[in-house]
Prior knowledge:
The chain is of the alpha/beta class. The protein is built from 19 helices and 21 strands. The protein has helices spanning about 1-5, 45-50, 70-80, 110-115, 155-165, 170-180, 180-190, 225-235, 305-315, 355, 385-395, 410-415, 420-425, 485-500, 505-510, 515-525, 545-565, 570-595, 600-620, and strands spanning about 15, 20-25, 25-30, 95-105, 125, 145, 205, 215, 240-245, 245-255, 265-270, 275-285, 320, 325-330, 360-365, 400-405, 435-445, 450, 465, 470, 645. The strands form 5 sheets. Strands 4, 5, 9, 10, 11, 12 and 19 form a 7-stranded mixed β-sheet that branches. The protein has a 5-stranded mixed β-sheet with strand order 3-21-13-18-20, covered by helices on one side. A 4-stranded antiparallel β-sheet has the order 14-17-16-15, covered by helices on one side. Helix 4 (about 110-115) links the parallel strand 4 and strand 5 (about 125). The radius of gyration is 24 Å and the shape is globular. It starts with a helix and ends in a 16-residue tail after the last strand. Residues about 1-20, about 30-70, about 80-85 and about 650-663 have low confidence and may be disordered.
Amino acid sequence: TATATATATATATVRCGGGCRRGGVREAISPSIDEDAGTSVDDDDAMNGCGGASVSPSSVSMSRGGAGATTLAQRAKQRAAGLRKPSAFGVVPDACARVDFAVIGSGIAGLSYALDAAKVGDVAIITKASAFEASTSYAQGGISAVVDKLDSVDEHVRDTCIAGGYLCDERAVRVMVEDSRAAVQTLIERGTRFTRRESDGALHLAREGGHSRHRIVHADDMTGKEIERALLEAAQAHPRIKFYEHHFAMELLKTRDGESPRCTGALVVDEASGMTTAFVASSTVLACGGAGHLFPSTTNPVVSTGDGVAMAMRVGATVANMEFMQFHPTALFTGPGGATKLVANENAFLITEAVRGHGGQLYNALGERFMSRYDAREELAPRDIVARSIDSEMKRTKSNCVFLDITHVGADEIRANFPGVAAELAKRGLDMTTERIPVVPAAHYMCGGVSTNENGETSLRGLFACGEVAYTGVHGANRLASNSLLEGVVFARRAVASVTDEINALRAELPALDVDEDELRRWLEKECLALTRACATSSAFVTKDDAWERDMRAEIQRTMWNAAGIVRTTVEMEDALRKLQTLSRACEDRAAVCSGYTMGTAEISNLIVVGRLMLRCALMRKESRGLHYTLDYPEPVDDEKKPSFIVEDVAADASQRAPTSPR
Length: 663
């Protein structure tokens, strides 16, 4: 049955790339539920339809070509005319480039990795929008760190594990927290200007929900924007770092199956021209964020469509804890009776956790404070508890939102501490110094992801992951506020340190950095697995207001919100899993009809893959814990206190339980 197939599990201890061992529930993927939501269209048809009539000059720095090397313009003409035939590597990419480090993503994790990796070799940063358009830029609150003499590592670790529903990997948490002071100092050295106390110039520390101490280092209420500015300026000025903005990572490259397959880079599409380039990299790092756009309301930027997790899944990398999607409790409500909407399809504007940390109080539509009915910590409870409490009050009072009130704090103090929030609300005709703010929960952060060890190594050699796309174990069943920026810096630094130790070996497994491009192409054909999604459509790769894409996204979002929102049931999740399977086939049909992928179709394909992973992990968990709350199993269960893993293993067909230890 569909249910049995979706929830099949196998006893496993997953071995990560760096040698760590994690015990947990592992689901094997059988051929009947292949996670690839893409398609292998007929090769001749694909070649006849994937070209573009006009070709813009390539911005990619290619490997050195010999006298007989085919030029990019010649390849484009051949591609448009259908003269370039497929090979063992799949549809032939338009160009090949050999790099040392391929970094997919340009937020705090990707930029931190790139700046450290540039000490070792040349770095290509691949990002599908402008480099500044990363989730980091939208982070308001700050970065948690033990810098105050009254604080301690043990207290920060304890707060993190409590917020995480005791599902955190405590060893990984301790690694992160012990490095927090150094991480903040690194950001300062790279140009970040944090808010300081006027009295002595020391870092000003805020407090947020779930934290027992003031330990949030911040830049007013626009911390992410300031960090992104500083790191981006440093990276853009570095001679060994090159940016490929508006380049979409379609697939990861992987050597053919054997005793030790490895990741060898990524297949990337230039969004302006539709030209494809195979970046062959000694080390590839996924740092491309989460999947907030699985849901109709999200604080995430438009780039957050789960691309990294989907690509990793298609090459067989292990993913974990995908059931834990964090809904931020207080996103600005712009529906009927709420604040003014500035743009028709705008993302949810986040009202930072720090507003509650500074004394903000929550009221329901009847004008009642309600958090004391749900948790003794009231508004300072962890996010999962506050979000469920708001959801419960909205349902109880049959209202569209609740209200956040900080008007009892002085107006000057509010404006001094929350200038960004106050300015944004003022644009919408709302004065937070005198009016309550209408808020609702919105999809915010993916606590699961591509499983890594403490050095950012995935289960596939040569592939690293850091930031929101990664599952490091530090967030458990619910992320503690302001731990995400810290995680991004710490594990990016550790990933570079790890790869530095073996960079010469990784380089030696691939063609030389100055290899002739045609020779590199021959190597790809001989050594790497065929690509299933190498073909961009012959029409515009980036579409504008495509009705099919718009309707498909909306259907995916409705399906996921109804089944995998704040409160879940088994029946709804099983129905949603079947629905996404149907949508996956529709996506494949669309790509076949269009003789290739548009960027929108590729993103929809990735959202479907990640949505299915989220549902399957949720169905594996027979309890409620942290962000996963199901009416069928409303209480936590000690025997279920283990991470959920999904790994490609077609030989596994048993349904058993794994050891309870998270490692």
